[in-house]
Design a protein that fits this description.
mainly alpha, rod-shaped, disordered N terminus
Length: 115
């Protein structure tokens, strides 16, 4: 048992010494693990690119939702104006058919109360 303690202690010291002296990440280390390092870099770049595309798409969705809401508001306003004009023309047509002698006012209404 004491041999195992000595082995881990000495190997731990050796690893610490290698890291401090710069031998842990030597050129040989990069040559042996080049495929893994390249794969890790590609995965990191893919993650960053995917996040950027996602954020851009979300911003576009928000912009399009705002544009849709504005278009729907314009549609409701145009529909209300059209229906009002239809009602007014129908009323004018009906008044002319019945020969009531009425006409649409040319001046806007005014208040009788003084302010």
């Amino acid at each position: 048992m004491s041999e195992k303690k000595n082995f881990t202690t000495t190997s731990g010291r050796k690893a610490g010494k290698d890291i401090i002296q710069g031998r842990f990440f030597s050129l040989d280390f990069f040559k042996r693990n080049a495929v893994y390092i390249i794969a890790l870099v590609i995965m990191a770049l893919t993650y960053i690119a995917n996040k950027f595309v996602c954020q851009s798409s979300m911003q576009e969705v928000i912009t399009l939702k705002t544009e849709l809401a504005n278009a729907q508001t314009d549609l409701v306003n145009a529909s209300a104006k059209y229906n009002s004009m239809i009602r007014e023309s129908e009323m004018t047509k009906l008044m002319q058919e019945k020969r009531l002698g009425l006409a649409a006012p040319t001046e806007p209404p005014y208040s009788l109360r003084e302010k």
